[in-house]
Write a structure and sequence with these properties.
The complex is a heterodimer of chains A (256) and B (300). Chain A is α/β, with parallel strands linked by helices and 256 residues long. Chain A is built from 6 helices and 17 strands. In chain A, strand 1 and strand 2 form a beta hairpin. Chain A folds into 2 domains: 79 residues, Elongation Factor Tu (Ef-tu), domain 3 (Beta Barrel), CATH 2.40.30; 161 residues, 3-Layer(aba) Sandwich (Rossmann fold), CATH 3.40.50. The two termini of chain A are 34 Å apart. Helix content of chain A is 17%, strand content 34%. Chain B has one domain: TIM Barrel, CATH 3.20.20.70. Chain B contains 10 helices and 14 strands. In chain B, the strands form 3 sheets. In chain B, strands 3-4-7-8-9-10-13-14 form an 8-stranded parallel β-barrel, surrounded by 8 helices. Chain B has a 4-stranded antiparallel sheet with strand order 5-6-12-11, with no helix packed on it. Chain B has a two-stranded antiparallel sheet with strand order 1-2. In chain B, helix 1 runs parallel beside helix 2 and helix 3 runs parallel beside helix 5. The longest helix of chain B is centred in the C-terminal third of the chain and has 16 residues. Chain B is globular. Classes of the chains: A alpha/beta (256), B alpha/beta (300). At the A-B interface, strand 4, strand 6 and strand 13 of A face helix 1 and strand 5 of B.
């Protein structure tokens, strides 16, 4: 499959460095799946869906800054949707996320709610200014906010909000955010690992399961095709939260 | 069931179906997984002397009958790769380290520093400046690089050749003169794809290498030509995705085969191919040795 040409129909600012791009077509993704976005002349990067026809980009590197700067009417090339997304299970679910990682969770929560599930959310941000999708989450159900600087909600990391919740109340837990935030939550909620689905990030090159750059130690899980959603019990004994490989394939520290 | 175990290119292999270089070979864990899935041996991602991030994306394009790629030799350098090889060896099959450099002494330095069951010299990557086929299309360089690695190392040395040349046999003969223990043929065919919406070449590097079923007939021809003239074994690679393809490649003269692009279907391809090959040999009452090069003996 060659990249599909796609036009950006609308650009919405979510936070100073975060924008949502609405595409001219619905690729029918499952929440948690991703698409490889080709910014022509720059690079191709994985982006997760924040809705059936939207992606939400945070400007962090050269390629995401280029995508962030594209206006209405610009075109991009798309390969996807790819990978395994979240699977909805049970009647009561909890969404836990942070930063731009809340994007696929908002999408998932909306699908869950229309399927009749009861949805609650625990969301962490650096500061009040970085908050995104609050209206979407509040429309779904109870929403707890934490901020690192204490400018809104509970002060501290997202895990600071765990004391407000009884995780036994939920049939399934969905997690997406910076790696250290997810790791923090996974390591504090080990007895719930089997019912926790985490959408994780590794360095993708081929996004087809053959180049090996995203493989997770020690099992060699090909995150680009077997993930990016992986249950927390498979992550607990893995490299996740300890180290990650960069573009060269060499090991480096986890971000966030 | 007939035995699939063979001795080829200085290695004892449980079966002749190996994981090709550049495929799921960045981490020891993924190499180990290939071994446990039934690969007779595994070849690592090519490693050089300094870390490289590789080309910008897109790094692959699906095309009719195959795959175009321009990864750009990303690797953490040999100084940061021994751990991956050691982890891969837990899989219990030979681990062949693919190495690249831009001159003979650079190859030799890497070979001296890494411990692996064998080396495969990447003299054939078609899309990295100053590396791969930019050296590998010159017979004298193929010979001198091979000789330098042989002198620097005590393990078997395989030389992977490029088909992007008028005469691959010349390159094979040069590797043999340099002391190669086996030839691996072929690497990808230099190719490109263009986005007709905008005119942009799709690959970040513009040029890449074509692999997959589309190149199998080219690979079969190369292996046939090489095996017909060389005294050292030839490992066949290029578009093998089924046991039938493996039989064809072995009939062309390959002592063993490597599988790459077919891994798009997952790790199950190793067992599919070895099981099919085994059944075929049984049905035909042939041994692997008898199958090898059968096409060359059928000339009237």
């Amino acid at each position: 499959m060659r990249p599909i040409n796609c036009i950006i129909e609308e650009v919405r600012s979510e936070a100073p460095l975060i924008r949502t791009l609405r595409l001219d077509r619905n690729l029918d993704p499952a929440p948690g799946q991703y698409v490889m976005v080709w910014i022509r002349g720059v690079d191709e990067i994985p982006m997760s869906f924040s809705g059936p026809d939207t992606i939400t980009v945070q400007s962090v590197g050269v390629a995401s800054a280029a995508l962030f700067s594209l206006g209405r009417g610009s075109s991009i090339g798309l390969r996807g949707p790819l990978g395994n997304g979240f699977v909805l299970r049970g009647k009561r679910i909890l969404l836990m996320g942070g930063g731009v990682g809340t994007a696929p969770l908002a999408f998932l929560g909306e699908q869950a709610k229309s399927a009749g599930m009861k949805v609650a959310s625990l969301l962490g941000f650096r500061s009040k200014e970085d908050l995104i999708f609050l209206d979407r989450f509040e429309a779904l159900g109870d929403t707890i906010i934490t901020t690192d600087d204490g400018s809104l909600g509970i002060p501290g990391r997202a895990s600071a909000g765990l004391k407000e919740l009884d995780l036994f109340d939920y049939d399934q837990i969905y997690l997406c955010g910076p790696e250290m935030m997810m790791w923090d939550i996974i390591s504090r909620t080990r007895e719930h690992a089997k019912k926790t689905q985490a959408c994780i990030n590794r360095y993708f090159k081929c996004a087809a399961g053959i180049c090996g750059s995203c493989c997770l130690d020690p099992e060699g899980v090909r995150v680009c095709v077997e993930g990016p959603v992986i249950t927390a019990d498979r992550l607990a004994e893995s490299e996740f939260g300890r180290y990650r490989r960069g573009p060269t394939g060499g090991k480096g520290p986890c971000r966030g | 069931m007939p035995s699939l175990s063979i001795h080829a290119g200085g290695l004892q292999l449980n079966n002749p179906v190996l994981l090709a270089a550049g495929i799921l070979g960045t981490t020891g864990a993924s190499l180990c997984r290939a071994a446990r899935a039934g690969a007779g041996g595994v070849v690592t991602k090519s490693v050089g002397s300094v870390p490289r991030e590789g080309h910008p994306g897109p790094t692959i394009v699906h095309v009719d009958g195959g795959l175009l790629n321009a990864m750009g030799l990303p690797n953490p350098s040999y100084k940061d790769f021994q751990d991956e090889i050691d982890t891969a060896r837990v899989g219990g099959v030979p681990v062949i380290a693919s190495i690249f450099g831009s001159f003979a002494a650079e190859f030799a330095q890497i070979a001296r520093s890494l411990k692996a069951d064998a080396f495969e010299l990447n003299l054939s990557c078609p899309h990295a400046e100053k590396y791969g086929s930019e050296l590998g299309r010159y017979p004298d360089l193929v010979e001198s690089v091979t000789g330098a690695v042989k002198a620097a190392s005590s393990v078997p040395v395989w030389v992977k050749l490029t088909p992007n040349t008028a005469d691959i046999l010349e390159l094979g003969l040069a590797a043999q003169r340099g002391g190669a223990d086996a030839i691996v043929a072929i690497n990808t065919l230099k190719a490109m794809a263009i986005d007709i919406e905008t005119g942009y070449p799709i690959l970040g590097n513009r040029f890449g290498g074509l692999s997959g079923p589309a190149i199998k007939p080219v690979a079969v021809r190369c292996v046939y030509e090489l095996a017909g003239r060389l005294e050292i074994p030839v490992i066949g690679v290029g578009g093998i995705s089924s046991w039938e393809d493996a039989v064809e490649m072995i009939m062309a003269g390959a002592s063993a085969v490597q599988v790459g692009t077919a891994l798009l279907r997952g790790y199950g391809v190793f067992e599919e191919i070895t099981t099919g090959l085994s059944r075929y040999l049984e049905r035909k009452s042939l041994t692997l040795e008898e199958l090898c090069g059968l096409a060359g003996r059928r000339r009237s």
